[in-house]
């Protein structure tokens, strides 16, 4: 104690405890990477103060806007599974690895984007390019709209999942899920493949044009 000049174990009985000053809380790496026109909202609080977060647009975002790459740890086994998020894998050096994000300091803001339960609420597609995973908007996103993602057609095949995910509110199923067939699908005239949205069909047809 500097007031009485004594070295004490614990608090000074004469002058009392010190006034503790707390350090400023630093946001996690993932939160610091959030673009300025996006925001995180708490959608639900679970046991132990666990927050369920969603990513929302603060202003309008154009169609064909690309985000990424997704940041995560390459792992042969997924250590952090959340049924509301996409499971992502990439090919690296001939091997197939999970993009694992066990905590917010191991990833970027894309780890907060929730999966789309149906094509109406889907705003993003996830796909692999040059060993990285990116998200791209498939429609214009209005302000205050939540960004939700599902696999692009080719990436869905790589992930052994459906190109469309239709899930009821009460359903809880592990990824990759069992999905329903889309109604009135878009059909490729070249190979007969079906797609849930015209945007996915357009993307697929670009592959045929490149091959030609």
UniProtKB/TrEMBL annotation:
InterPro entries: SET_dom, SET_dom_sf, Zinc_finger, Znf_C2H2_type. One of its GO terms (biological process) is regulation of gene expression. Residues 186-212 form the C2H2-type domain. One of its GO terms (molecular function) is zinc ion binding. Residues 38-152 form the SET domain. GO terms for cellular component: nucleus. Keywords: Metal-binding, Transcription, Transcription regulation, Zinc, Zinc-finger. PANTHER family: PLAG1 LIKE ZINC FINGER 1, PR DOMAIN ZINC FINGER PROTEIN. This is PRD15 protein. The lineage of its organism: Eukaryota, Metazoa, Chordata, Craniata, Vertebrata.
